Each structure stands twice: as C-alpha cells, then as structure tokens.
Amino acid sequence: MDYKKIVQELELKMNTFSKTGDVASYIPELKKVDPTKFGFHLACLDGKEYGFGNHKELFSIQSISKVYTLALAKEILGKDLWKRVQVEPSGNAYNSLTQLENENGIPRNPFINAGSIVIADCLLSVLENPKDDLLKFVRRISHDESINYNLKVAESEKASGSRNVALIYYMKSLGNIKNKPEDVLDFYYHQCSLSMSCQQLANSFKLFANHGKLTETSEHVFNQQSVKRINSIMLTCGFYDEAGEFSYKVGLPGKSGVGGGIIALLPEHYAVSVWSPRLNKKGNFSLGMKTLEVFTSLTGLSIF
Ligand SMILES: NC(=O)CC[C@H](N)C(=O)O
C-alpha cells in the first residue's frame, strides 16, 4: 500500500471541504484554542509515519484518555471491572445523567463520562500514585518522555465541571464510588488534560493495533484478548451517540474527545489520528470523521 501517496491525496481532498463547527466552550481553557488548526498523522506498524497540517502540535486529548485508563484498569482488575461498568453503547450524550438512574448507578460503558469516572475510582483504589503512574504509562507506550498534563486545562475543568460532580455524587449514593469524589474527579480531570499531538497519539495507539505489543521492542504490555475487548468497546462506544455513524462510515474502532481529537486504528496495519477543535452538536469533530471516511475509502481497507 502506498500510504505516502494516499496521505498526499487525502490532504488535497480535505482542503476542499468547508470547515464548520464550534470549539468546546464548557471548559473555558479549551475555548482559547485556534479553530483553524487541523492535523493528521498516520503511524504504521512497520515504523513508517506520514502526517500533514498541525500534526505535531499539542492539544487536549480529553476523552481519548478514557482508553488508556480503561486499559490500565482492565489489566489490574480483570473481569471484576465489569461489575461496576457495562459494555453497551449508550445512545446518549457523553455526560447524560438520565440513564444512570434507570441502571442503578452502573454506567453503560467506560467511555461515557460516568463510566470513565468509575474507572478513575477503580484506579485510585489500586495505584500508589495514580497521576504519576498514568503519565509513566502513557510516556512508555508513546516512547516519549515529554508528554505531560496541562494543569491549566485540568484546573479550568475542575472550576466548571458541575455536571461531572452531579454524576459522581449520584453514583456514590448508589455505592458505585469508593473513594472521595473530589479525589476521583481530580484524577479524572488530569487524565482528560493530557496534552498530546496527533503524532504522539497515533504512536501510542499502535499498541492496540499490534495485539498489545510495543512495535519497537515487541514487549507485551497487554494480552491479546484484552486488546480485542478494548478495540470492540471503541468500535461500539467510542463516539457516544455517533458510534454507529463512525462505524458505518469509517469502519474502524476509534475514540473522540472534546478537544477535537480522534484516534482510530486498523489491527495489524496502523493507528491514525486527526485533530481540529471544531465540534458538532454531539461533541465530535465532523470533519475529522469525514477525513477518516475518505482515508479508509482511499485505502480500501477497514476491519470489515
Ligand atoms: N467527550 C469528552 O471529551 C468529555 C471530557 C470532558 N473532560 C468531560 O468530562 O466532560
């Protein structure tokens, strides 16, 4: 496959699409990001990489971090994790409160806010230094020691995150939060504030395209079955109530975040990331979804 040529063609094609959508404003610090930014990066398992636009610029990965924390929690807690969070698509907004009441405080999946907050609670119970441990893990799988939290973004979300406060106290009242809510949210806001480029993201996700092995050292970080399960949850739940749309049009497992980033992967081939801060009403980056739709059409490859 001539990925170099395909990525060049993709860049030309994407310049012809109009750029619509709004920067997320409910986290004040995210509102400051320049809406014209746009980056694309493809990291192949054979070590070749291709990118264009602002693909080396850092942005707030937000909910994409939910994949890292799920992978860590699953590794440590195994099947017990599924007593506290389900694996069904929510068909609802990522910060919805209504479903929780009907389902006794057990979130639908680990990629909506409530689910990821439960995962954060689980990690807080088992990790000695949760924030340091998560950062070490992300740096290790990205082979990049420069990755860090953006503390301004974490503080900004803490000051404005009433919806997450409501979610966590509701789950606590039903016994599904074990630690102090403030401590759990502090960890959750830090994970969401991870600041990475499309290039770093794509490189860190090669692991999920490579059956849990680091491509550089062949070291097994996760077992093959765990990776299969995490990729399945990305496919069915990675884009909230647009998961069906993404799967239908792109045909890859992936995950979005309100910073405007998207990560997706094709097992045994590559991980790919696209970013622009402009979001649609469902909190996803429409042009990014379109970019990946065009990309998988040009390659003629998807998981199906
Ligand atoms: N979809 C997202 O990226 C949401 C993450 C954001 N930190 C929140 O909790 O609302």
Give the end-to-end Cα distance, rounded to a whole number of Å: 18 Å
The CATH H-level superfamily is DD-peptidase/beta-lactamase superfamily
What is the overall shape?
A: globular
**What ligand species are in this complex?**
glutamine
The radius of gyration computed from the alpha-carbon positions, rounded to a whole number of angstroms, is: 18 Å
- Broad structural category: alpha+beta
Protein name: Glutaminase
Catalytic activity: L-glutamine + H2O = L-glutamate + NH4(+)
Subunit structure: Homotetramer.
Family: Belongs to the glutaminase family.
What this model shows, in words?
The chain has 304 residues and is α+β, with helices and mostly antiparallel strands. It has one domain (3-299): 3-Layer(aba) Sandwich (Beta-lactamase), CATH 3.40.710.10. 45% of the residues lie in helices and 12% in strands. The chain is built from twelve helices and ten strands. It has helices spanning 3-14, 65-77, 98-102, 113-126, 130-142, 151-160, 162-173, 181-192, 198-209, 224-237, 243-249, 286-299, and strands at 22-23, 39-44, 49-53, 59-60, 148-149, 194-196, 254-256, 261-266, 270-275, 278-279. It has a five-stranded antiparallel beta sheet with strand order 3-2-9-8-7. A three-stranded antiparallel beta sheet has the order 4-6-5. It has a two-stranded antiparallel ribbon with strand order 1-10. Strand 8 and strand 9 (270-275) form a beta hairpin. Helix 5 crosses helix 9 and helix 6 (151-160) packs across helix 8 (181-192). The longest helix is centred in the middle third of the chain and has 14 residues, at 113-126. The radius of gyration is 18 Å and the shape is globular. The mean pLDDT is 94. It binds glutamine. Glutamine is lined by residues 62-63, 94-95, 113, 157, 164, 192, 257-258, 283.
